[in-house]
Amino acid sequence: MASPQLSSHQDDILLTTATGQVGVRRTQDKGWAHAITQQGKILWSVELPGEPLPEEVILPSAGLVYHALKTGELVALHVNDGSVAWSAEIGEALNGAAGLSNDTSPPLIAAVATDGRVSVRNAINGSEIIGFDVGSGGYTAPLFDGDILYIATPTSISAYGGLGALLKSGN
User: Fold this and answer.
1) In Å, how far from its chain's centre is CA 148?
2) How many beta carbons lie within 10 A of that of residue 163, not counting itself?
3) End-to-end Cα, the chain, rounded Å
4) Dist CA 2 CA 130 (whole Å)
5) In degrees to the nearest 10, what's the CA dihedral of 79, 84, 85, 91?
6) What residue ranges in 42-116 does DSSP mark as E strands?
C-alpha cells in the first residue's frame, strides 16, 4: 500500500500491504507491516489493527516506524522486530499520514482525524503533548517547520506556533 522505505539501518525495506480502499471504511479492511532485506528475505510481518494509509513515517534515531490507520489509530512499531511500541486513538478516522518533527526534544508526531481532532504526541512514548480541534480533517499530513505546525483542512491552512514553549512548560 505505501511506498517501500529503507529502515534506519539503510539495508532493510519497510512496507505495508492491505485489503480495502482508502477513504471507504469497511469492517473487512485489514493491513500488515513488513520488513524485508534488499535480497527479498522477510524479516518480520505483523498484522495491524486496521488498514494503513500511505505513507509510513520513520524515526531512525529511535528505531520506530509510524502507521496512520483508517480506523483513527496511530501505531508505532519497532523497526527491528515489528513489535508495538505504542498506539493511540486519534479520532473517528484518519485520511492522511502523520507528520514528524526531529527538530524538537522529544521528537513530535502529529495526526489530524477526519472529525478535526488534532493530536500532537511525543514520538518516542506516544504520550499526548496537546490535542485540539480544527473543525474537519483533510487528506494531507501535518507539517512541522521548526517551532510551527501547519495543518491543511478542506477549507483552510493554519499555522500553530510556540511548540518549543509548550515542550518547555512540561505539557
Assistant:
1) 18
2) 21
3) 35
4) 28
5) 120
6) 42-48, 57-59, 64-68, 73-78, 84-89, 99-101, 108-112
- Kindly report, residue by residue over 95-140, the tens digit of the pLDDT: 999 999 988 889 999 999 999 999 999 999 999 999 999 988 888 9
Give the distance between the most distant pair of CA atoms in the chain: 47
What pTM value is reported for the model? 0.88
Q: Which three cell numbers stand for residue 93?
A: 478516522
Q: How far apart are CA 95 and CA 80, in angstroms?
A: 27
% helix / strand / coil in the chain, to the nearest 5? 5, 50, 45
Give the Cα separation of 106 and 144 in Å (integer).
14
Backbone φ and ψ for 167, nearest 5 degrees, come out as -70, -35
**Which of 143, 149, 141 has the alpha carbon at shortest distance from 165?**
149
Q: What are phi and psi of 106, to 5 degrees?
A: -75, 165
Name residue 26's amino acid: R
Cell numbers linked to 124: 518516542
